[in-house]
């Protein structure tokens, strides 16, 4: 495991820090800046800031230069994630497009798709959603029912997608639908990946209210919506293989950015424990809470060194494959441990953004509520453990 950075890596870090110092206002780094702003207002502020970041050459760090990226290394991408977390910079408004669709288009897209999709995606001119899950098809994605019937040079779409990130702000959606019957075949057959315009009659996006009050997810209804037949990614009937390729671009990613964010969260919780009174003394004096904090810190440090291991391996060109499930388990469990410690410090009051006078805890409360979902989406912990057991350790099913 290599814990050193090359001179080129350090030059990139210095360049990025200087740009952030000059272009990320201090107030935008504070939770108070975002308080009171609607979802739409927050989205547009983040979108405009991210467009400036792309123009300055700090987007698509590992993307080839021919597609507008920086042509950087995995280590540069890890440095980028770390410095963005340290600066408390706004998260991307186009996460699914940047992480999944862009690299897939580069790999298997047509020349026209590469020309029309990649640059607008990178510069957040086009916001992309992912339409995979359905009310009856979540973990068992191959059970999806949305249909796309050929009609002339178009497909006519009917069905529903759910848990769609950015549904209310999406311009387009890459979605799976059945373009032919799979009767008598495996249920993975007959599925295609379609690129659909969200701004048309027949596409109805509705927000799903979360317990934090935000609506980052939505559900999307397709009623005789249209998709040109040349807006298929990877060819008709190859949707399952395309989806697996698309999701594979999450593999090999280091969790250094997550570690940096969660460690900052842990520091805040530890400081809070010294301020909050429990049983006539600070919560930090409670041996059970101290043990909880210590356990969370151990998990975080394990995550850090696991992340360095992953980064060292991918920097050598190794494809980690199913080992990516170990990273997903590590960071989501560490996140939940920190959030559980926060809940222990405040008790049931953690559910209220400002349970005690003088403490501004809305950000920590939101993160704590998010933490449970992270052990479910993207493959639950149980599913990930099965993958590791069977595909990494070679244990019998």
Architecture overview:
By secondary structure, this protein is an alpha+beta fold. The protein has three domains: about 5-95, Acyl-CoA dehydrogenase/oxidase, N-terminal domain (Butyryl-Coa Dehydrogenase, subunit A, domain 1); about 130-235, Butyryl-CoA Dehydrogenase, subunit A, domain 2 (Beta Barrel), CATH 2.40.110.10; about 255-390, Up-down Bundle (Butyryl-CoA Dehydrogenase, subunit A, domain 3). Helix content is about 45%, strand content about 15%. The chain contains twelve helices and ten strands. The chain has helices spanning about 5-25, 30-35, 40-55, 75-85, 95-110, 110-120, 240-250, 255-275, 285-315, 325-345, 360-375, 380-390; strands spanning about 130, 145-150, 155-165, 170-180, 190-195, 205-210, 215-230, 230-235, 275-280, 280. The strands form three sheets. The chain has a four-stranded mixed beta sheet. A hairpin with a 2-residue loop joins strand 2 and strand 3. The protein is globular. The two termini are about 30 Å apart. The relative contact order is 0.09. The model has no long low-confidence stretch (mean pLDDT about 90).
């Amino acid at each position: 495991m290599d814990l050193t950075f090359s001179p080129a890596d350090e030059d990139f870090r210095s360049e990025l820090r200087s740009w952030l110092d000059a272009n990320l206002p201090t107030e935008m780094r504070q939770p108070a800046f975002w308080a009171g702003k609607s979802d739409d207002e927050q989205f547009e502020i983040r979108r405009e800031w991210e467009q400036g970041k792309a123009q300055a050459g700090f987007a698509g760090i590992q993307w080839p230069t021919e597609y507008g990226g920086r042509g950087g290394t995995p280590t540069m991408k890890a440095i980028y994630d770390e410095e963005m977390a340290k600066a408390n910079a706004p998260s991307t408004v186009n996460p699914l497009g940047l992480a999944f669709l862009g690299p897939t288009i580069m790999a298997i897209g047509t020349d026209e798709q590469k020309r029309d999709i990649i640059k607008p995606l990178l510069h957040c001119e086009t916001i992309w959603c992912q339409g995979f899950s359905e009310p009856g098809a979540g973990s068992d994605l191959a059970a999806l029912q949305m249909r796309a019937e050929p009609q002339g040079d178009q497909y006519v779409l009917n069905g529903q997608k759910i848990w769609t990130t950015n549904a209310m702000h999406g311009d387009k959606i890459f979605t799976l639908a059945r373009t032919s019957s799979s009767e008598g075949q495996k249920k993975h057959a007959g599925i295609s990946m379609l690129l659909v315009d969200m701004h048309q009659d027949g596409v109805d996006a509705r927000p799903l209210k979360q317990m934090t009050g935000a609506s980052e997810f939505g559900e999307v209804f397709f009623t005789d919506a249209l998709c040109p037949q040349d807006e298929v990614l990877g060819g008709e009937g190859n949707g399952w293989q395309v989806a697996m390729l698309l999701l594979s671009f999450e593999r090999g990613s280091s969790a250094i950015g997550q570690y940096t964010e969660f460690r900052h969260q842990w520091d805040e919780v530890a400081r809070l424990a010294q301020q909050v009174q429990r049983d006539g003394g600070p919560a930090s004096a409670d041996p059970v809470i101290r043990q909880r904090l210590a356990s969370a810190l151990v998990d975080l440090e394990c995550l850090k060194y696991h992340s360095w291991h992953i980064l060292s391996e991918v920097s050598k060109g190794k494809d980690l494959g199913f080992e990516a499930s170990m990273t997903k388990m590590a960071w989501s469990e560490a996140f939940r441990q920190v959030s559980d410690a926060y809940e222990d410090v405040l008790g049931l009051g953690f559910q209220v953004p400002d349970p005690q006078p003088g403490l501004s805890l809305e950000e920590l409360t939101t993160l704590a509520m998010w933490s449970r979902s992270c052990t479910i989406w993207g493959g639950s912990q149980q599913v990930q453990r099965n993958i590791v057991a069977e595909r990494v350790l070679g244990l019998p099913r």
